[in-house]
Amino acid sequence: MPNLSHTVLVVDDDRNLLTLMGHVLQKHGYQTLLADSADQVWQKLDALPEGQAPHLILLDLMLPGVSGLDLYHAFRRRPQTADLPVIILSAVNDIDKRVELLNQGVDDYLVKPCPLDELMARVAMYIKLAELHRAKQAAERRSQTQARYLQSINEIGYEATQYLDLEVMLSKVATDICTQFECANIGFFLQNPENEQETELTLVARCATRDAHMPPLVWQTAVDQHTHTEPQQLYIPILRGQTTLGVLHVTEHDHSQWDNTDKRNALEVLTRQLATAITNAYLFQDIRRHNQKLQVVANENSLLLHREQRRRKQAEQLHHMAQILSSSLELTTVLDTALATVHSMVEVEDGSIILVDEAKEELYFAATLNHQPWMQTLRLQLGQGVVGMVIAQQEGLVVNDVVNHPNYYSAIDDLTGVRTRSLLCVPLTAHGRILGALELINKTNGDFTGTDLALVSTAAGSIAIAVDNARLYEAQETAHKQLLQTEKLAAAGRLAASMAHEINNPLQAVHSCLQLLIQFDLAADKKEAYLNMAGEEVERLINITNRILDFSRPSTGTYERVSLQRILNQVMQLAQKHIVHQKVKVQQTIAVEVAQVWAVPDQIAQVFLNIILNSLDAMPTGGELDIQTTIEGEWVSTLFRDTGIGMDSEVQTHLFEPFYSTKSNQAGLGLTISHGIVERHGGQMKYDSPRASSYFVIRNS
After folding, report:
1. Reported pTM
2. What is the CATH number of the domain that holds 126?
């Protein structure tokens, strides 16, 4: 049904027809404005409330004193009716006239008399089209407004970051908001950053000449941290996290309703950006006040300013050193970096890091500033020299007359050729443990000071932690290698019985040949045959021994491009006798296109052997072991499938856990270590008990 608020302006000099059309339109729910002349048209339109206009015009071409076409153009020139749809009503059924009018912008042309149902349909259609057109225009205007607001947010937010002076920044921002958001007034009420416990707001900046009074809702907005509105007024909290920095107060030119408006949303977004700029300005104010204090001190004594600047530089160097030290776990790199950084902060002739050897209860030179590796062979007794005293007492020390110090140890000077005049030494302590000491010798620009001691002591904290981490990492790496070697030997041990049998056979053959040669007077050709036979068996023993030694020796940890098939073949040779004794049939399938992988060969061999031995353990009375190696994209997959007893859900749950084993004579580390090796290679290791199979995948190099 038509909306009762829709109004149709009907212009026709035939008053009977005009009255009829008015009744028909009203019957269909429309309001009407009826005019029989141009003058009456303008009177009717001027009588409408400001901002209102009809929704459609029905216009007769033949009017007294003015043509309908002239009146049409007058409608188009008048803002009130410029965009209204116009339907021409004419008794003239002239196609050329119709085309001419449509070309001039008329929306439709109906010939009188026109069927009322067709007329009402056209009226409803063009009113609907006009509504859609207005809605589209409104959406476009809103989109343009939102784009303009977004641009304003970006421009104002960016400009705010260019100022570090709070009042200058907020004054510029307030002016920009007034201009770009078309506001009557902007006020920034900020809280004193030094008293965040109480809400004390002060007007810091505004863009219009208004009284500096504080509207009541400013307080309320700051307290409850929510946006508030009232006619012509908007209050937005300026928040940094849960802290109120202040309130943005906006005054509009008219009584706009702020709820859910684009301008309100845009200003709220902008306020969140300004919170960061205000915080930065506060920080700048703090720095500026601090610098002003420093300037006062500098005017009294320029040396203090120089020291402050040096402290800042040293703080940056300490921070940089801490970053570098935390990025490395290699002890030599940590020590060299530490000495170089400390030297850049305190210029000295020489320096060293002395560490405690707890096992030998000695001190040794782990690193020297002038890179003298031979000094690492020097050893000091615990407590010996100034360094030993510092380590024992765990307290930093400055000695500017070392020769007269009771703990001066001249033997080191004699060896290094550096005569120690002054010395600064601080202990290296991490997690409550004394690791050693950092020693600096002969400051180049004067005596060591308490400031130097404090600075180097601060650096020593980071150095000690880095040294402790590097040692722990080295210990973990050593333990890991030992664990790998132990489990490798354990795997070799599982082959001991079959390997012993494999070694015993050639030994028996050699023994028999030698007995024949010793006890019987054989012909020369017989002796040669038995010697050749013994030699072949010795070669066989050498090959067996080499296979065992190759597998059992500690891993180098060196990655190289290697064929998985070559590694698997070596493992199969190693386990072949065990496989035969277990009465297991092995079937291998290798994809032709399998390429080399980037891996540590002996570690992958250890994985293969563990899996194969587990499969053999699962088939005590014999069975079949199927090994398939395939390539899928960048991954190479090796799958082991056996006909063994499989694993129940309990075993699967603890499969890769260390020290979990279903065999009382095994430590339960084989699968754990194998799983770790595969993951270190960037691959994955999985077991699928229902199929009694296991596999791992590794990247193709």
Report:
1. 0.36
2. 3.40.50.2300
